[in-house]
Amino acid sequence: MGDIAQFIAIPIDLTDDGLVAGEPFKCASPASAIERAKGYWTILGHAGAVAFVRTGYPDFRTTVLRRFGSVPDELQI
Predict the structure, then answer these.
(1) pTM across the whole model
(2) Residue 54: beta bridge partners?
(3) Rounded to whole angstroms, what are the CA distances from 77 to 1, 24, 34, 43, 72?
(4) In sequence order, what are the beta bridge partners of 55?
């Protein structure tokens, strides 16, 4: 049985508490997750965005595909 893979894009916003992750958006492919994250940053004006893939179940591994703009190093994804 193969690993389950989820491709996700998350916008990052600047608040009074610092950089905060927004609502995750599930995508159909790695390319669509990267394009969605890029759109969050360039078109919608978020402080940053990140695209990543999460594989495996119930133990999962997260791999960041791309970062755009301001993304905290300690982002919990």
Answers:
(1) 0.86
(2) 6, 62
(3) 25, 10, 16, 23, 11
(4) 5, 61
